[in-house]
Amino acid sequence: MARQVIEKTLNEASVTRLHAAEQDVAAVLHDRLPLRGDVVVKAVTVSLRVDDDVVAAARRKEQTRYDYELDELERRQARARMEFLRDELLVDPSSARLYSLLQLSPRLGGPLPSSDPDELVREVHRWHPTSRWVLIAQTLHTFSERVTEDQAEDLLKLASSMMELLGHRRLAANLSAAMEAR
User: Fold this and answer.
1) Are 108 and 85 in contact (CB under 8 A)?
2) What is this structure's pTM?
3) Would you give per-residue pLDDT tens digits along the chain (182 residues)?
């Protein structure tokens, strides 16, 4: 009976916490030994030993699990911070301006104190999925996928010429270089 109690108790113990496992086994044995009459158990001694490589492997496993949990916590915090920024802070310029005036705990998150709230709002709205320029870019991308390679190249040459004509030589050169890089 004692062996079954010990094995059951040790199945729930960690090899990296031998002292605690020994105490658990001693306590369980003390509580479960079938003694009758005036017999009292004064002490139970249990000694456990685990190979060093088993302990090292268990510690690596615990560290891996701990690192994974930290990574997951960081991902959840980043998602929550992004939602907060998008849904609360950057809804409009006045919210961003008011937020920038508050003395907040660093744990709350938000943009850096040195950042311009109006610029943040402009950037968020500029890259929002329903913004004008994002919709135009998506439409041009879809169109370029539906035309032949030669037609797409002609379209890009036309865009490069327009950029140059409007005085944006560097952008035109970048577009030409990207076309040649294929």
Assistant:
1) no
2) 0.41
3) 667 777 777 777 776 777 787 778 777 777 777 666 676 666 666 677 888 898 889 889 999 999 999 999 999 988 988 888 778 777 766 676 667 666 565 665 555 555 666 776 677 777 777 778 888 888 988 988 899 988 988 988 999 999 999 999 999 999 989 888 76
